[in-house]
Amino acid sequence: MDEPALTLSALEKQMVLDRDKLQSIIDGFIVAYHHGLTNDDTTMIPSYVSRLPTGAETGTYLSLDLGGTSLRVAAVTLLGDGKADIEQKSYVIPAELKVGHAEKLLDWVALGVKELMSCLGIQVEIINEKEMYMGVTFSFPIRQTDINRGLVMKMGKGFQLTGLEGQDITELLQAAFERQGIKIHISAIVNDSVGTFVANAYKDQNTIVSVVLSTGTNASCICQTSSISKHNFPLDSPEYMLVNTEWGIMGMDFLPRTKYDKILDLQSIKPGFQPFEKMVSGYYLGELVRLAMVDYVKNFGLFDGVLPSGLEIPYNFTTKHMSDIGSDKSPEYNVILKIFTKDYNKSPSLDDRRTIHELVVRFSRRSAQLSAAAIASLIKLQCPDFPAVERDIRVAVDGSLYHRFHKYSSWMNKTFREIQRIKEDKRTKIVPVEDGGCMGAAITAMMYSH
């Protein structure tokens, strides 16, 4: 990649997403959605979730949420009136389980489920006497063949596993449960964005879009089953179905990529795969800033032209670093000084700190703006007259980027209002969802347990 280095002002011009650029991105996504519905098996994947909760349902169901960095297992008790209690345990996925044979990872997952049961005082013998229903949120692409069946597709987020791609995730998990001596019936497999959709729909039936912004990114929406023409659904199929967009895969032909986006893609495990995810998600944001810093050391004298120790290592500058830096209100950027002194054995000058801060703001703000444009495109797919719609619309958003990254949600909401060309819209709202994957999986398990 031999593109010239860009000064901060030149990079800013390249990364600014004005109204015309945002509209071009929205239009590009809509074309990609229609292509996915008609021709592409890797996007716009039918979820087989064709019913939504009313909020009146009750009962206790299990859920499992396997994401890019963590595993969560939960027992969800639906209380009715859109309310629920959740008991859960979370685990960070060890790096050694992201490579090698998938059986090691799945056995570790099953142990986590068994530990939750033990903590809740439910013995394995009791589980075996009464079959427990579980919903599984699998935060990676799967080619769904039924509500509780799906073949694992190419994985991102740094996973390189054998024995998983092309296999039915339900069969693999059920086998892992059996190896641990627990009897659980998986009645639903959902993607994280589908789970988030169902979780919010339990509280608000005006939900039409769900989004996950975390280690990775994805979204789901409602589509007419007949519009998913790449599949030959029976004539008596339900009229509507939730669709897992896998929008992270989209965008190679319409997203405005910088030099650093292209370098990151070429150096990634799977070049050309998930261009939108590589510009937006938490897994990649820190690496984009690291690549820019390396370039600025070489071409603009950042750190006096000497790369700090450790900054040469890919992915060794994290999105958590970025969020901490963004939240620092001190005029001397003391958080940057603390991070670089501690993690890279370097005490950057005030000018260096200003440059680092500007790079962090530019890439994180662009991520939020791209997310807002993608959300607008999914609303427009379902409501072609958007933003001139005469109905209540809820967009459910879950994920650490949205919830915990400093200013991310405000940047995203501001851009969304700019796309709508209004200061405030009380009918169309972006609403936060916590534990959407776990909650939605359990609710879906309830709906399909009989």
From TrEMBL:
Pfam families according to UniProt: Hexokinase_1, Hexokinase_2
Query: According to the UniProt record, what class of enzyme is this?
Result: transferase
Q: Which InterPro entries match?
A: ATPase_NBD, Hexokinase, Hexokinase_C, Hexokinase_N
GO terms (molecular function) for this protein are: ATP binding; D-glucose binding; fructokinase activity; glucokinase activity; mannokinase activity
Give the EC number(s) under which this enzyme is classified: 2.7.1.-
Give me the Gene Ontology terms describing cellular component.
cytosol; mitochondrion
Q: Which residues form the Hexokinase N-terminal domain?
A: 9-202
Domain Hexokinase C-terminal: start-end pairs: 209-447
What are the protein's UniProt keywords?
ATP-binding, Glycolysis, Kinase, Nucleotide-binding, Transferase
Check the UniProt entry and state the signal peptide residues, or none: none
Which SUPFAM superfamilies does the entry link to?
Actin-like ATPase domain
- Which domain of life, per UniProt? Eukaryota
Q: Which residues form a coiled coil?
A: none
The GO biological-process annotations, alphabetized, read as:
glucose metabolic process; glycolytic process; intracellular glucose homeostasis; mannose metabolic process
Concerning its family, UniProt says: Belongs to the hexokinase family.
Descriptive protein name = Phosphotransferase
Source organism per UniProt: Gigaspora rosea
